[in-house]
Amino acid sequence: MTTSKSESGSYVEAGEFKRDTNYIETRITADGRDGFPVEAGRYRLVAARACPWANRTLIVRRLLGLESALSLGLCGPTHDKRSWTFDPDPGEVDPVLGIHFLRDAYLKRFPDYPRGITVPAVVDERTGAVVTNDYAQITLDFSTEWAEFHRPGAPRLYPEDLRAEIDSVNRRVYTEVNNGVYRCGFAGDQAAYDAAYDRLFTALDWLSERLAGQRYLVGDTITEADVRLFTTLVRFDPVYHGHFKCNRDKLTELPVLWAYARDLFQTPGFGDTVDFTQIKQHYYIVHTDINPTRIVPQGPELANWLTPHGREALGGKPFGDGTPPPPPLEAERVPAGHTPL
To answer: Region Disordered: start and end of each range (predicted)?
Structure first.
């Protein structure tokens, strides 16, 4: 659900929060079986740095080196009841798609599109129509279907021999953590909140135990599983701890997860996609039923994201036999002051 910048939004649901998981399942594949073959220069990834689901696509695109094959459009951190919008661009219009509302790309393909306009989305630049917004599948396809356009030294984020374990970890991380923070924040009564809170911190304790003796979630290199957990952890203290009442502990008070998150943040491709200013603006301004004043907090302190984490002692290599990605493109860098990097 979205909300107008000039209207009070409604995100809290009666009882337990239930996410709409019906996405556009069309895929962009090497064989083009859905009518959309992988082609360099044909598609535009539309994301928002504020959104954890979209942040995944920004990280994976960076790690795999797909920048020259897949262009990037960035929406602003807030949206109205109709759509995410391209506020950061001159005239608030995406320079490639020529639209202000991402909604227009959805309606171009589905004139009566009945659901919320979400990021990330991949748009066909030839037609200006959305192809998919299935965020979980998008990053997996970046790793598999877009292999022809991976940079030399790209990591194997979804290796075949680890896929069953990655999928298993991802299922629990999604239900209990990625979506768990939202079940806390959007709970409509005390019982629903209490149940969500208990499930969330049970899962965080399980992750702490798992990561106490291994550097990464699955195997000894970064995988898709680490990307998916990171985008929630990096938002935990700035947003979820206070705004969503996930306040048993701060991330900084969970030694294993805090060290793990800093390790990833300091890895090229992770922290350089994170815009803490936009993250806070999104949650505290858009969710007016939770924060009616729309006051955005100044904290927390960010410099501690760059402190030593000590995770190297556990072994493992972030990119396996590969190499780190080069620095972000100039036009895609997070603005100074929005990140400690």
So the answer is: 313-341
pLDDT band at 55 (very low <50, low <70, confident <90, very high): very high
224 and 111 within one domain: no
- Residues of each annotated binding site: 84
Is position 51 annotated as part of the catalytic site?
yes
| 43-47/121-124 β-pairing | antiparallel
In whole angstroms, what is the distance from residue 76 CA to residue 67 CA?
20
What are the pLDDT digits (tens) for 264-322?
Answer: 999 999 999 999 999 999 999 999 999 999 999 999 999 999 999 999 999 999 999 99
Q: 206 vs 187, 202, 203, 211, 256, CA distance in Å?
A: 23, 6, 5, 9, 11
CB 62 within 8 A of CB 269: yes
- Active-site pick, 51, 75, 184, 246: 51
Strands 71-74 and 43-47: parallel
In which domain, by residue range, is 61 found? Answer: 43-149
106 occurs within a structural domain: yes
Count of domains forming the chain: 2
Judge whether 216 counts as a catalytic residue: no
Residues 6+ apart with CB under 8 A from 308: none
**Cα–Cα distance for residue pair 45/72, rounded to 1 Å:** 5
Catalytic-labelled residue, pool 43, 106, 135, 182: 182
The answer to whether residue 327 sits within a structural domain is yes
Considering the domain architecture, whether residues 209 and 318 belong to the same structural domain is answered as: yes
Q: Which residues are annotated as a binding site for glutathione?
A: 84
Rounded to an integer, the average pLDDT of 39-59 is 98
Answer yes or no: is 183 within a domain: yes
